[in-house]
């Protein structure tokens, strides 16, 4: 077979990717320190330099981070899957391209002005300084890169305490950010971390006098820790998003959207559909479409029991199951599923542990509701007051409004897969830090600023 130019390019790309994965030692990365205090000191020095850069220079760093994210999307995706064992490479590549294209940069930093008889007053968005950021293993490089774009665009630098199970991927992403800064004429160490992040290094960071703001992306434990730190905290916590389907929905499309959203990156995104609440009159039809057209595998009561024992341990979620594909999960309970299977489904009560727990794996329990009011009540219960994300498939705008008010989440997606909320098949910008607990919602550069009022009395109004 003749070797085409495209094939040669693909082989070269693969070899370069493998060399990068295998050959780059963490100790040679920019921004990695043995001691958390040294990491913070370096980020503080870098922030002094960022602070005096023009907005245009800052934007050049951001553009370079976007470029490097695109160039390294596949390397980062493979590294994340290899290191954490979670998710799938194809979807992770898409997530990197999405964040590179749609995370807001310096354009998000705006000024409000009042001018009148008594002069001119401006409110400007200034940096906090060095931000402490804690990141999850479910979207390791995505969160680091997205946080860096927003935080640096706002004039800050960042010290990360990444998840210990995703250190390599997270530090690789930080290295790219520092390279992007240096190449654009900015300082090194705009993103720093420690070689071995632990709860102790996290505690050092949270207590440090030079860290005025902490952004925590993770489960309930870390958000509570940050909010107890005595510092300003942005808490992007856990979710358990229900997808409600009523009798007015396009049921076939709802089945497709829900399964597409649920299976994206093996259900790792915190916004992804974690269970379904369907009104009785369409519940069977919805289940039929999911099984016949969307690659769903219906498990029996006895198989559900085996799955519960595999997925949930007395200490909580079995991390070996998080972000695994449906076929891998089924093989763990002795089922050899066909290759087209992408999601596990069953019907159960809302209290069923595979429904009420935030699993982060492609398992969708369907809860049957007597009518719309009952469906809303069940969905609100299942969201557990996280105020994170919820989804609805309905053509009745009164129903949509009632649901939106009752569930009161940072994200509510209507008639689309959950990832539309991140600007993927929907309008709006992207973020991987959704501040559900503290109310900032989908974070962006402006979230990481202090508002400052600048007043000129009786002058500079020329109206
Ligand atoms: P995790 O809570 O286990 O870890 C997240 C980070 O917090 C890690 O860096 C971990 O080391 C740190 N951490 C955990 N407990 C801590 C404590 N007591 N003190 C200091 N640091 C602590 O979460 P994970 O498994 O990495 O990620 C999945 C969770 O994160 C899910 O609950 C998911 O919903 C949530 N999440 C939320 C968002 C969001 O934007 N709201 C985004 C991604 C993930």
From TrEMBL:
Indicate the segments forming the Aldehyde dehydrogenase domain, all copies: 34-428
Show the GO MF annotations. Answer: acetaldehyde dehydrogenase (acetylating) activity
Under the heading SUPFAM superfamilies, the entry gives: ALDH-like
Q: Any idea which UniProt keywords this protein has?
A: NAD, Oxidoreductase
What organism is this sequence from?
Answer: Candidatus Eisenbergiella merdipullorum
Name it.
Answer: Aldehyde dehydrogenase EutE
Q: Which CDD domains match?
A: ALDH_EutE
Q: Which domain of life is it from?
A: Bacteria
Q: Which Pfam families match?
A: Aldedh
């Amino acid at each position: 077979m003749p070797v085409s130019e495209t094939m040669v390019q693909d082989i070269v790309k693969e070899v370069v990717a493998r060399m990068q994965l295998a050959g780059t030692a963490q100790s040679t990365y920019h921004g990695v320190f043995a001691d958390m205090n040294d990491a913070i000191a370096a980020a503080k020095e870098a922030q002094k330099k960022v602070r005096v850069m023009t907005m245009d220079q800052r934007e050049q760093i951001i553009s370079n981070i976007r470029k490097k994210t695109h160039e390294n999307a596949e390397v980062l995706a493979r590294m994340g899957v290899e290191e954490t064992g979670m998710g799938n490479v194809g979807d992770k590549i898409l997530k990197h391209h999405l964040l590179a294209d749609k995370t807001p940069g310096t354009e998000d930093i705006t000024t409000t002005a009042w001018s009148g008889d008594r002069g001119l007053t401006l409110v400007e968005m200034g940096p906090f300084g060095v931000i402490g950021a804690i990141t999850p293993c479910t979207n390791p490089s995505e969160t680091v890169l997205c946080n860096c774009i927003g935080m640096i665009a706002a004039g800050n630098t960042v010290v990360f305490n990444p998840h210990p199970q995703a250190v390599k991927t997270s530090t690789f992403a930080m290295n790219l950010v520092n390279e992007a800064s240096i190449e654009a004429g900015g300082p090194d160490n705009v993103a720093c971390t420690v070689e071995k992040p632990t709860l102790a290094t996290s505690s050092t960071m949270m207590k440090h006098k030079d860290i005025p703001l902490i952004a925590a992306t993770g489960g309930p434990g870390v958000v509570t820790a940050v909010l107890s730190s005595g510092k300003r905290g942005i808490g992007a916590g856990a979710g358990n998003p229900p997808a409600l389907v009523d009798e007015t929905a396009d049921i076939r499309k709802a089945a497709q959207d829900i399964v597409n959203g649920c299976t994206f990156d093996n259900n790792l995104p915190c916004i992804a559909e974690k269970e379904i609440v369907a009104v009785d009159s369409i519940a069977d039809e919805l289940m039929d479409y999911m099984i016949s057209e969307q690659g769903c595998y219906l498990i029996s009561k006895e198989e559900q029991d085996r799955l519960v024992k595999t997925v949930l341990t007395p200490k909580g979620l079995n991390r070996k199951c998080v972000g695994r594909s449906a076929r891998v999960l089924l093989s763990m309970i002795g089922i050899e599923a066909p290759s087209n299977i992408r999601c596990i489904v069953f019907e159960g009560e809302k209290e069923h542990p595979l429904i009420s727990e935030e699993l982060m794996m492609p398992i969708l329990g369907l809860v049957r509701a007597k009518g719309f009011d009952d469906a809303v009540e069940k969905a609100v219960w299942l969201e557990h007051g996280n105020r994170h994300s919820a989804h609805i498939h309905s053509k009745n705008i009164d129903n949509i409004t009632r649901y939106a008010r009752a569930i009161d989440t940072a994200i509510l997606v209507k008639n689309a897969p959950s990832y539309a909320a991140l600007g993927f098949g929907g309008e709006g910008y992207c973020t991987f830090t959704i501040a559900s607990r503290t109310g900032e919602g989908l974070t962006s550069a402006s979230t990481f600023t202090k508002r400052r009022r600048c007043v000129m009395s009786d002058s500079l109004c020329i109206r």
